[in-house]
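User: Hey, quick favor. My workstation is busy. Could you predict this chain's structure for me?
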Amino acid sequence: MVSAGFKDSFEKIIPELKANHTKKNLSLLPQLLCELLPYLFKLSKEETTSKLLSDSGILEDSISQSDPANKDPLLRAHSLSLLAEIWSLAPALIQENENTIKVEEVESSVLESVLRVMKRACRDSNRVLRVSTLGLMFKLMDEFALVRNS
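Assistant: No problem, here it is.
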């Protein structure tokens, strides 16, 4: 019963988040969603939340906002953090997603696009963005190592 109510609420929230995600004055929105995702996965079935995330377009928007073409380093950092959180909570959503995303005139898989924006953020001129992205990559590496060694 909680799951059905949650699903209905989440379906209403996601379009609003997606619509507001690209507005310049709401650069903290990816960080807000990043903080909420662990609770959303605990409250609902993982498949439901993963499906809603993939259908909403938040993943694609986060990848495009993480691209170096976006000149707002805060929005880029928060979008990268959201991508890392999604990847750690639902690895299949990133690794097994067959959708293609066009970033800088290059069309590639979701996994390749996420890796591309993370690698580029590691080489960015903004030092804070570089350090935070390296931290996210080490966090992901640690989580993947724990899964593999368990």
